[in-house]
Each structure stands twice: as structure tokens, then as C-alpha cells.
């Protein structure tokens, strides 16, 4: 294969064997250190944070292994036939001559694309036939920019091998210029990055599960009005207990927003039972009862008493604590009542405080109201109040919930014995 370097781009002098060997030694020491830390870490495979940490360790080891193999290739030179499945068998090169329309592929590229090394390399016009249909325009645009505007190629696309498997390929290339400065050919290195991207997706997915806890099981039975209520932008989250694992997780908390009467007022409620409800039906039954009472016009201060009467005749455990708020969008009046449950938190103008003592106040546009269950430790409540500048600067209730769950995910890890919790955030829109 001819050199890919033009007269305008002289090759840099390669590092001496000693310096490359030193880099290899450093990389292998670092890889060993990372692997040792990973083995010593006491993460829990059932805990979202533990899965996220494990995925990050795996990704770091994968990248260090790749770096080690690349440096070894620099030291030893290209191997005549890398073993199947090794890193070096996942890096190939090619050159397409625009004057003769000939193509030259390395043996590794044939293996990456799943083609017979004895077959004829595909031309640039034929190459898209190996690419997934939805990725073909991207490949065509990269090649066109390289040949017409002399732009380097640096992008990814997915190829379909003859056996039907799909691999993700990262392609880097540049035009090769002749003596007149015209593009004579295009040279490229292609790397199979399927495993690397799989590791990165694992990190992303576990991070998302950590920052955005899944909804509780009753969420599908009684939908939460995520589109909001009159005058309010709403968002909520369930914070699973670290000890809730296996087939019997604890789901003792609930949150809800529903009409209060028939004049546009909204009831906001959050609470939990005295003991976990493993199947999740208890909160659904209670939310249904609360909605019925609210539609009948039962005021927040009477809900505790009425719910207690209803629960006496059921198999459900007693309510340990709940907070109920009524909000009238026409006057922005907020009323609340709570018993053995933390008071609502109000955030305004970069500051936050608990709504305790008086049972009625007037809200303003942009105010954030945060209701949460007693499962949150006092330290967590103090930390939430310290987030006031960030929360009042949030553009939506969902943004506020992301901030809270991300912060609490780190803080509540220090309380492994806590129960599961729920929180509801309402943002006044007008």
C-alpha cells in the first residue's frame, strides 16, 4: 500500500523504542492498578450506583487494553496475521486510487467487514452496500467532503457482515495529493469499535438509571399528570431503598396530583405507609381513595382523618406520614396539612425554607414547591435547601427533579438502611 502522506504533510519522526516501551510499561501498570481497585470495590450489583461504577471500571479497562495493544504495534511493527478476535484484528486500513479506480485493503479490514481476504476489495462506490441503510448518507457525505473539499474523515457507521451481524466501525481518513496538489487517492484507517461503544452504552444506561429512578409499580395503574395541572408544571420521582432488592422490593411511598373539587383547584399529596407494600397495590388503592375524596371536595386538613377511617376497614398498613396541599390557580393560594411527615419546602428567588407553622400562603410565578416523604434524612432536607439557587434557576419541574435526584443519589448512599421515598415538585407557571 502506498503512503497516505503528501509532500505538504511530512511524517513526524516516530518515537524511539525506549520511549514506546516506557509508555507500554506505564499503561500496563495503570491497567493493573485500575483492575485492582475494581476488584477491591464493594459495589452491589443490585444497586444502580454499583452497576454504574462497575460499568465505568470496565470501560476504563477496555480503553487501557486497546491503548496497550496499539503501543505494542508501534513497537513491534505490523503483524503479518493477527489472531482472530484480538484488538489488532479490529484495526484495518485501505486506499482507493481515484485515477485507476483500484482499491487496496489490509487483511485486517477484510476480517472487520467479514469478507473473504481472497475477494476483490470494494470500490468507494461499492462500499456503501455494506453499510446499514440509515447510515449510508453519513458515509457518502464524509467521503464526498474528503474528495471534493479535502476534509479529513472522522466518523462512525454500522456495517452488516455476510452472516447478518452488525458492527460499528470508526473511520479516519484523508486525501492523498499528487505533485499538482490534486486528490489522487483516499487513504483511511477503519476500526471495529463495537465493544467499546457497548461499554460506553452500559455506562450511560447505568448513569441514567442512577440519575432518573424508575417510577414505582403503581405508576402504570394510576397515571400521574406529567403534563401538569392548571397553573402548575409537575414532576415527581421514586427513590428506591438501597436494601430493596430481588422480587420483593419495598414500595411504601406514593405521590399524586389530582383535581380538588370542580373549580380548577389541585390536590398535591405525598406520603408513605408504616411498613413497605411489596406488591405496590397498597399505594394505588390509597391514591384512588384520595382522588375520590378530593373530587368530593374534601379539604386537605380533613384528608388525614378521612383516610384513617377508610384504612381501618382494609388490610393495608396505617399511613405513617403524609402531606396534602391544595392550590388554587386563580389566586395562587396554597393550603397544606401534614402529620408526622416533613413540611413542604418552598423555593423562591434563590432561597428555600420549610412551610411550617401557618397553613396557608400565596405563591408567585416561578416558585417551586417540593413535597417529600419522611424517608429522606434530615441531612438530605438540609442539602435540598442548599440547592435553592440551582432549583429556582431550573427551566422546568422535570429539570428540578433531575437536580434533586442526582444530588440525593450521592447523599442518600450514606444511609443504606433508609426506606424508599418519593418526592413531588410543582412549579408555578402563572
Automatic annotation (TrEMBL):
Q: What is its EC number?
A: 2.7.13.3
Coiled-coil stretches: none
> What InterPro entries would the database entry show?
PAC (IPR001610), PAS (IPR000014), PAS-assoc_C (IPR000700), PAS-like_dom_sf (IPR035965), PAS_fold_3 (IPR013655), PPM-type-like_dom_sf (IPR036457), Sensor_kinase/Photoreceptor (IPR052162)
Q: Which residues form the PAC domain?
A: 153-205
Instruction: Supply the enzyme class, top level.
Output: transferase
Q: Where is this region: Disordered?
A: 1-20
Q: Give any Pfam family that matches.
A: PAS_3
Task: Write down the chemical reaction(s) this protein catalyses.
Answer: ATP + protein L-histidine = ADP + protein N-phospho-L-histidine
Q: Which domain of life is it from?
A: Bacteria
Alphabetical keyword list = Kinase, Phosphoprotein, Transferase
| NCBIfam families per the UniProt record, alphabetical | sensory_box
Q: What's the protein name?
A: histidine kinase
Organism from which the protein derives: Streptomyces tendae
Amino acid at each position: 500500500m502506498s503512503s497516505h502522506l503528501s509532500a505538504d504533510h511530512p511524517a513526524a519522526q516516530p518515537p524511539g523504542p525506549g520511549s514506546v516501551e516506557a509508555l507500554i510499561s506505564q499503561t500496563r501498570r495503570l491497567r493493573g492498578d485500575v483492575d485492582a481497585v475494581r476488584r477491591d470495590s464493594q459495589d452491589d450489583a443490585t444497586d444502580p450506583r454499583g452497576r454504574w461504577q462497575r460499568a465505568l471500571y470496565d470501560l476504563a479497562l477496555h480503553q487501557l487494553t486497546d491503548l496497550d495493544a496499539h503501543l505494542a504495534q508501534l513497537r513491534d511493527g505490523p503483524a503479518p496475521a493477527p489472531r482472530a478476535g484480538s484488538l489488532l484484528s479490529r484495526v484495518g486500513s485501505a486506499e482507493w486510487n481515484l485515477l485507476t479506480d483500484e482499491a487496496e485493503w489490509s487483511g485486517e479490514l477484510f476480517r472487520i467487514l467479514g469478507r473473504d481476504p481472497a475477494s476483490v476489495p470494494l470500490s468507494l462506490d461499492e462500499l456503501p452496500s455494506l453499510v446499514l441503510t440509515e447510515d449510508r448518507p453519513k458515509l457518502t457525505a464524509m467521503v464526498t467532503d474528503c474528495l471534493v473539499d479535502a476534509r479529513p474523515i472522522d466518523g462512525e457507521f454500522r456495517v452488516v457482515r455476510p452472516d447478518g451481524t452488525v458492527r460499528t466501525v470508526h473511520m479516519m481518513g484523508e486525501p492523498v495529493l499528487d505533485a499538482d496538489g490534486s486528490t489522487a487517492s483516499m487513504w483511511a484507517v477503519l476500526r471495529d469499535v463495537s465493544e467499546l461503544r457497548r461499554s460506553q452504552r452500559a455506562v450511560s444506561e447505568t448513569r441514567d438509571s442512577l440519575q432518573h429512578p424508575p417510577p414505582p409499580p403503581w405508576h402504570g395503574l394510576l397515571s400521574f399528570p406529567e403534563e401538569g395541572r392548571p397553573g402548575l408544571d409537575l414532576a415527581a420521582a421514586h427513590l428506591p431503598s438501597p436494601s430493596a432488592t430481588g422480587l420483593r422490593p419495598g414500595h411504601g411511598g406514593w405521590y399524586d396530583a389530582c383535581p380538588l373539587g370542580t373549580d380548577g383547584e389541585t390536590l398535591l399529596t405525598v406520603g408513605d405507609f408504616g411498613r413497605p407494600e411489596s406488591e405496590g397495590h397498597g399505594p394505588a388503592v390509597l391514591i384512588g381513595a384520595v382522588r375520590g375524596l378530593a373530587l368530593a371536595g374534601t379539604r386537605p386538613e380533613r384528608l388525614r382523618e378521612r383516610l384513617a377511617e377508610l384504612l381501618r376497614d382494609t388490610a393495608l398498613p396505617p399511613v405513617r406520614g403524609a402531606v396534602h396541599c391544595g392550590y388554587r390557580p386563580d389566586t395562587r393560594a396554597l393550603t397544606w396539612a401534614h402529620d408526622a411527615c416533613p413540611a413542604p419546602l418552598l423555593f423562591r428567588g434563590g432561597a428555600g425554607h420549610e412551610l411550617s407553622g401557618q397553613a396557608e400562603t400565596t405563591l408567585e410565578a416561578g416558585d417551586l414547591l417540593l413535597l417529600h416523604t419522611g424517608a429522606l434524612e434530615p441531612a438530605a432536607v438540609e442539602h435540598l435547601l442548599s440547592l435553592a439557587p440551582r432549583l429556582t434557576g431550573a427551566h422546568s419541574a422535570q429539570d428540578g427533579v433531575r437536580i434533586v435526584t442526582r444530588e440525593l443519589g450521592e447523599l442518600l448512599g450514606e444511609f443504606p438502611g433508609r426506606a424508599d421515598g418519593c418526592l413531588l415538585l410543582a412549579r408555578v407557571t402563572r
